Each structure stands twice: as C-alpha cells, then as structure tokens.
Amino acid sequence: xxxxxxxxxxxxxxxxxxxxxxxxxxxxxxxxxxxxxxxxxxxxxxxxxxxxxxxxxxxxxxxxxxxxxxxxxxxxxxxxxxxxxxxxxxxxxxxxxxxxxxxxxxxxxxxxxxxxxxxxxxxxxxxxxxxxxxxxxxxxxxxxxxxxxxxxxxxxxxxxxxxxxxxxxxxxxxxxxxxxxxxxxxxxxxxxxxxxxxxxxxxxxxxxxxxxxxxxxxxxxxxxxxxxxxxxxxxxxxxxxxxxxxxxxxxxxxxxxxxxxxxxxxxxxxxxxxxxxxxxxxxxxxxxxxxxxxxxxxxxxxxxxxxxxxxxxxxxxxxxxxxxxxxxxxxxxxxx
Length: 336
What we know:
- There is one protein chain.
- 24% of the residues lie in helices and 25% in strands.
- By secondary structure, the chain is α+β, with helices and mostly antiparallel strands.
- The protein folds into three domains: 6-71, Structural Genomics Hypothetical 15.5 Kd Protein In mrcA-pckA Intergenic Region, Chain A (Roll), CATH 3.10.290; 87-175, Pseudouridine synthase (2-Layer Sandwich); 180-335, Pseudouridine synthase, CATH 3.30.2350.10.
- The strands form three sheets. Strands 3, 4, 5, 6, 7, 8, 11, 12, 13 and 14 form a ten-stranded mixed beta sheet that branches. A two-stranded antiparallel sheet has the order 1-2.
- The protein is globular.
C-alpha cells in the first residue's frame, strides 16, 4: 500500500533553490527527467498549486512529495558509498558542540567549512553528518539535520535538529521570525551613524559568470539593524548586526553598500576589504555570535559562540575586548 503524499517544508537551507533541484537533492537516486515529469504533471505541488520546475522555493513553502517517490524502483545507479567518519573527524565535530540534547544541537561552525555541498565543494557539514551516522556517532533516525545556513567563511552558531518534529519547529521559527540572530563583524571604515537600520532590497544576479546579490528595487525586502561596538580611528569598526530578514549574503552586501565592507570579504568588498593599510585580513571576519529562540515548552534559550582564532588575533591587535560584559550587553540591545 502506498502512503499518502508527504509534505516537505522549505527551510532556510533550501530557500532560493530551483524546485527541481530541491527534489534532485532529496531523491538522488531518481532520474532528473522523472522529477521534471512529476513537476510538469502536477504530482509535485507548491502550497497546493502546480509550479514550474524553475520556480525558486521560498522559506516556509510546503511541497507535495508524490507517494511513488518513496515506493517506485530507483532509476539511477546506487548512491556513492558513505565511509564512516574517522576518530579525528568525530573529535573535531564534538569539540565544536556548544549544546546538545535529544531534540537539537548547537554547533560552532569553523571558518572555511561549507554547510552544504556544491560545485567544487567536497568537504561539507551535510556530508560529515552522514559519515557520523556510518561511524555510529548518531543513529540513522537521530541524524542531525540542517534547518538554516551560514556562508562557508562565516563562523559561529548553527542550529541542527535531531528529530523531524524539532526540524519542523525550527524551520517554522525562522520563517515566522521567532528565532533571532546576532552577528559580530569587523568592517573597513566607520558608519556615518553609531547605530541604525539598513533597508536595501536584494536581488540575485549573475555578473561576469559569478552569481552575486545586488541592491535592486526589484529585489526582495532586506533589513538589518547595526550598532558600533568599538572602532580604530576611521579605519576599522566592530559592529553588532541583527538581520531582520534572511536574504542570501544580506549582511555582507548591506555593509559593503554603506561603504564599510566586512574585513576579508573580497567578493563584496573587493580590494578595499583586503588592503593591508586597512589592517585587512584574508579571512572574512563575520561571526554568528548569538542566537535566541523560544523552545516548544516556552523556555527562552540563548546560545553564544566564542570568536574564531583569526578574529581573536585581530581583536587583540585592535585592542577590542570581546569578553567585556558592558559591550556584550550593548550588543544584545539590538534584540529589543
């Protein structure tokens, strides 16, 4: 007996992907032509309606998964063998855990570690999680799953769900803006005002063969709160940033647009973000410092991640004190 159609709720991880690509990733052993046929025939629906294969999914979209996808024979070759994570990899993963219980875990993502795979990306967290299951670190039914993203070169707090119920809860929490995130960034230059709101719409566009986000009135609404926490003359500022929306590369584009690109962000800050005379870094200095969320039982939880090594070095060089209770309190004022 074939089970009823299964719903799939789009999380921040999938937001912006093509509809057919979402299903290709979820069902890697089905042929791409089979998936596209299901879209054309209306077997796959978005929020109860037919959609084009090229449709870019939105946060909170509910996708209908055809029952046959779970029952029919797989058309492609068997997926690649997954090798167990090594003891060293398990130790590295465990060392980054900030909190863990039966429902979810909080991970301090290191610099340069991609969350998901992609073109030319072989090492990523999603793949490591599969290998951790193979190594027995987690049971298959308790494999942590991604519910939001951080850019490869962004560090800090990342939430992972360990149950379907919690994955749905956290996904809805991000969609309904019930989960708040606070970032710390080192920027080249000083904002005109000590604090404020950046409201600039963002649009994804291919420029010279590279996909980037640009400020465009045709784009999606994007808003960011910011506050200067400290500075080095007119060269470098330490900013607290709170995104009120969750657009791709939002903080990076907003900072660059105001003439204060994030240190080390060559993609949006170009040479200005990398110049030695501006005490630039070859590593991007954007850190997801804190996340606040309300759990299903009503408890409010706050999770903080310590700075990555490369930012610690620069904080010491600039004379910034990340342990200052007064500055942390000032930073958290953006939550109000």
